[in-house]
Amino acid sequence: MMPLRIFLCAIPSLFFAAGLGAQEPEAIARGKKALETRAFTPGGWSFAAYENAWKQWQPKLDKTPDNYDEAFRAHYGLHAAPFDNGRYPMGLRSGTLLFAKGLATDCMLCHGGSILGNSHIGLGNASLDIQAFFEDLNKASGLSGKLPFTFSNVRGTSEAGAMAVFLHSFRNPDLSLRLERHKWELQDDLCEDVPAWWLLKKKKTMYHTGGADARSVRSIMQFMLTPNNGVTTFEKAELVFKDIQAFILSLEAPKYPFAIDRKLADTGHILFDRKCAQCHGTYGKEWTYPNKVVPLIVVGTDPNRFRGLPVKLGEFYNESWFAKEKPEGYKSFAPLGYQAPPLDGVWATAPSLHNGSVPTLYDVLNSKTRPKLFTRSYRTYEVDYDKVKVGWKVERLQTPPMDGSPHERRKNYDTTQPGRGNQGHTFGDDFTDEQRWAIVEYLKTL
Ligand code: HEC
Ligand code: HEC
To answer: Which tens digit of pLDDT belongs to each residue from 247-304?
Structure first.
C-alpha cells in the first residue's frame, strides 16, 4: 500500500510545480512593482493626519515624539518598507481621492510583516493595531473616530471577514452601488491571523476555511471595495492583480537563521511524517500537500471564523462580478472546517492557528501548556523572539488589566473571549516532551 500512496501523493506536487508555481518573470516583476508603488483604494486621509496621529495617543503627549516615523510604526505595529516608500511604513502610501492627493492603505498593512527586525512583503503582520490606526487617522483627518464595527479586538489580528461583509453590502452583483445596504448579519469577533503569502502556491483553496479557489484573482481584489471604487476601476485593475498574484506565487519562505540540531530534527522528521504529514504534507524537493479542510469536530479549534460569515454573503458573492472571472469563474465554497496550512517558514509566522491564539510551536504541540491570558512586546527583534519554543516571547497575566487605554488593553490576548479560544489541535498531546522538542526542531527546517 505505502509505495502507491506515496506515488499518488507526489502527483499534485509535480502538477503544482509546473502549474500554479511557475510564473512568468515579467509578470512577477510587474506584480511586485504594482504592490510597491500603487494604491488601490482612494487616499481618504490628509497627509497632516500622519503628522498629527500622535495627538490621539494615551497618555497624552505634549510634543511630537522624537524619531516620529519610528514611533508611529511601533505604536500601530507597522514595519519599515523594504522598498522606497518615502517616510511611510509598509501599508500606508500616497493615493488620490477625486482630484486631491491623500493617504491610502494597501495590502501590506496586513500582509507586510517583520521577523527578527527584518521586513518581508507577504509575511502576515502580527503586530498591527488596525483599530487604533483607523480611529486615530480618521480623527486626525477631521473625520469621526467611530468605526462602523470593530476592526480588531486584539492586536495582531483583524476582522477582515467583517470588513468583507460590510464592503460587499453596499453593492449589487454587477458592483454598482446600492441605495440601501444589504442587511446581512455582521459578526466582528472572528479574530483573523494573516496567512503568509508564500503558502499560496501550494494551495488549491485559500483562506482559513478553504473558502475560495486559490486561482481566483478577483477574490483578492475584495479590499478595493470601498464605495469610491466603481466597476470600471475593478475591471481595469484585474490584469494588475493577475500580476500581483504571479508575484505572490513566486514568494519563498525565509530560512531559519539560527543553528539547527540536525540529528534531533531527523528524529522529528520521522515523527512528523507519522503523525502530521497526513494533513500538513511533506517537505523538500518532492513535496506533497494534501490541501485538507479538516472538519471542526476533528480539529476542535475556535469555531467563530468557521461559523461567523453569513451564508447570504456566500450566495451573493457567487452571483456577483467576483465569481465570474474568465473563462469559467471561481465560486466560493461553504466552509467545511479549517484548512490545514502548509508549514513552510512556520518558524517565522507566529502566532499560530487561524486566530493567532497560540504564541509558539511548542504550545501548538502541547495544548496543556498554552497561555490563557498573555501579552507580548509586539516588536519583532531577536529579543522578542522565543528560539526555544519557536515563536513570540510572551508574558503570562493572571487577570485582565482593566486600566489603560483601549489601545493598551488590545495588547492582552484573552483566550476566554469570543473568537479567541486556544482549544483544539490536540494532535501533539500524546507525544512525550522529548518527541515534541524533536518535532519543533524539524519544523525549524521547513
Ligand atoms: C485588513 C487586513 C488585510 C488587508 C488590507 C488585506 N488582507 Fe489579504 N488577508 C487578510 C486576512 C486576515 C486573511 C485571512 C482571511 C481568512 O481566511 O479569514 C487574508 C487572506 C489573503 C489571501 C489568502 C491567503 C491564503 O493562503 O489563504 C490572499 C492571497 C490575500 N489575502 C491577498 C491580499 C491582497 C492582494 C490584498 C490587497 C489588495 C490584501 N490581501 C489585503 C488580511 C488582509
Ligand atoms: C487531522 C489533521 C491534522 C493533523 C493530524 C495535524 N494538524 Fe496541524 N493543523 C491542522 C489544521 C486544520 C490546522 C489549522 C487549525 C486552525 O487554524 O484553526 C492546523 C494548524 C497547525 C499549525 C499552525 C499553523 C499556523 O501557521 O497557524 C501547526 C504549527 C501545526 N498544525 C502543526 C502540526 C503538527 C506538528 C502536527 C503533528 C503533530 C499536526 N499539526 C497534525 C490539521 C492537522
So the answer is: 999 999 999 999 999 999 999 999 999 999 999 999 999 999 999 999 999 999 999 9
Give residue limits of the domains in the chain. 24-443
427, 436, 437, 439: which to mutate for ligand 2, most atoms within 8 A of CB? Answer: 427
Give residue-wise pLDDT tens across range 54-98: 999 999 999 999 999 999 999 999 999 999 999 999 999 998 776
Tell me which H or E stretch contains 15: helix 2-18
Please tell me what DSSP assigns to residue 328. Answer: T
| CA 219 / ligand 2 centre spacing (Å) | 25
Distance (Å, whole) CA 57 – CA 253: 35
Which residues does residue 306 pair with via DSSP β-bridges, in sequence order?
none
DSSP-assigned letters across all residues of 161-225? HHHHHHHHTTB-TTSPBPSS-----------BPPPPGGGGGG-SEESTT--EETT-SGGGGGGG-
Q: Integer distance in angstroms from the first to the last C-alpha of the chain?
A: 27
